[in-house]
Amino acid sequence: MEYHNSQPPEGINVSQTHPLLDLLRLLGGLLVIAAIVFAALALLADKLARYIPFEEELAVSSRFAADFPESGPMNAYLQELADRVAAAQELPEGMRIRTHYMDNATVNAFATLGGNVVFFRGLVGKMPSENALAMVISHEIAHVKLRHPISTFGRGLAIGIVVAMVSAGSGSDIVGRTLGNAGLLTALTFSRSQESAADAEALRTLARMYGHVAGAAEVFRLLQDESNRGSGNMPAILRTHPLDQDRIDAIARNAAANGWPMQGATRPLPEEIRTLAQKSGP
Amino acid sequence: MADLIVFLVLLASGYTVGRIAERRHYRSILAREKELANVMVFTNRFPPLTLRAGQALVAGSVVISEDYFKRVLSGLQSLFGGRLRAYESLLDRARREAVLRMKQEARGKGAQMIVNVKFQTFSIPGRNPNSFGAVEVMAYGTALTER
């Protein structure tokens, strides 16, 4: 039998598609899927996290309770004022606010999990009256009442878990940062709509406490002056709670709509509190 | 940011150098296949019964590695499942090259026929547990030489 070797046709065992096209198609598909998943998660985590009972928040926050400083005369005052504000704010059953005072020149205040709200010396020192301080306290308590910390925290955690499914390293980085004490204790940045909601709630409380909202006007005038002074040394509170014209207008509109006067007699801060708050240093 | 730049540079160089190397290899394979066409390979286990010939074991093996571009592309493809098109050309080249080297050895022994040709593939793991780094293909058979 006669055998001969003929050259077989090319391209049977290889694919004809151009590899770059392949890569672009796959990357595009992956990006689209990732975008959809992230968007869905951000939306869902926000809404679903609200259903986590407040007691669970307390269980988580008790882990970093030891990181808070000891309570002193300043914190006692803040706690007393916060209790008054909370009473006017009509918090749900089982929700208790715990204030903490950081003796640090940072001009900032934030709310975190478990009803813990933190105030810095720098901020308290700048408050011209008790009404202004009550406004800030009420704003942070409003974040707690509206469950903003847990929903922001839940969203960050959900995104971290999804990223972990694709890349274990980066995912566990994100989750670790969110769950670690650093993540729990730092100022969670809230969305603009969350800030406006907290503003509206605080305004209502202020009106209920004092009959007018002069404290709010004072606080915002102060923050506006700080931001106009230039971003060279912007206080931390402006970085975490950005102040823009919309926010100021919303306050004014809200007050006008509800008939709350923007001016009124304000109560001064106690003398010893002012001295403690206005001391200089880090 | 630096990570991204390194990744893109590796990707681009893997793609360009890999494509050039592959094209050159295919050109060489096609030329040698024409040249070695008269050394015939059979998968039958036994040679024709009437043939009187000496026999020798011949084998050809080649180790080819993936490049960075292939690794990334196949990683993405394996996320979604389906054909790993990136590796198809790699294995095609490796198989044909192994056969050519086996034929070369057979011709060196003066053979014009190789029977009972079989293939064996080995994977050599790469740095990443998900990628295979390099693949070795060995083709071996019994060459029928002049007695």
Quaternary structure: heterodimer
- Give the CA-CA distance, first to last residue of chain A: 99 Å
CATH topology type of chain B: Translation Initiation Factor IF3
Main structural class of chain B: alpha+beta
By CATH reckoning, the class of chain B would read: Alpha Beta
Distance N to C terminus of chain B: 68 Å
Summarize the structure.
The complex is a heterodimer of chains A (282) and B (147). Chain A is mainly alpha-helical and 282 residues long.
Characterization of this structure:
The complex is a heterodimer of chains A (282) and B (147). Chain A has 282 residues and is mostly helical. Chain A has helices spanning 19-49, 54-61, 73-89, 121-126, 130-145, 148-166, 168-179, 181-185, 192-210, 214-228, 236-240, 245-258, 271-277, and strands at 98-102, 109-111, 116-120. In chain A, α3 (73-89) packs across α9, α6 (148-166) packs antiparallel against α7 and α9 (192-210) runs parallel beside α12. Chain A is elongated and about 115 Å long. Chain B is elongated, with a radius of gyration of 19 Å. Chain B is built from three helices and four strands. In chain B, 26% of the residues are buried. Chain B has helices at residues 2-35, 68-80, 85-108; strands at residues 40-41, 54-65, 113-124, 134-145. Chains A and B meet through α1 of A and α1, α2 and α3 of B.
Features:
heterodimer; A: 282 residues; mainly alpha; 5% strand; B: 147 residues; alpha+beta; Translation Initiation Factor IF3; 4 strands
Please specify the SSE layout and strand pairing.
The complex is a heterodimer of chains A (282) and B (147).
Chain A: H1 19-49, H2 54-61, H3 73-89, E1 98-102, E2 109-111, E3 116-120, H4 121-126, H5 130-145, H6 148-166, H7 168-179, H8 181-185, H9 192-210, H10 214-228, H11 236-240, H12 245-258, H13 271-277
Helix pairs in contact in A: 1-6, 3-5, 3-9, 5-9, 5-10, 6-7, 9-12
Chain B: H1 2-35, E1 40-41, E2 54-65, H2 68-80, H3 85-108, E3 113-124, E4 134-145
Parallel strand pairs in B: 1-3
Antiparallel strand pairs in B: 2-4, 3-4
Helix pairs in contact in B: 1-2, 1-3
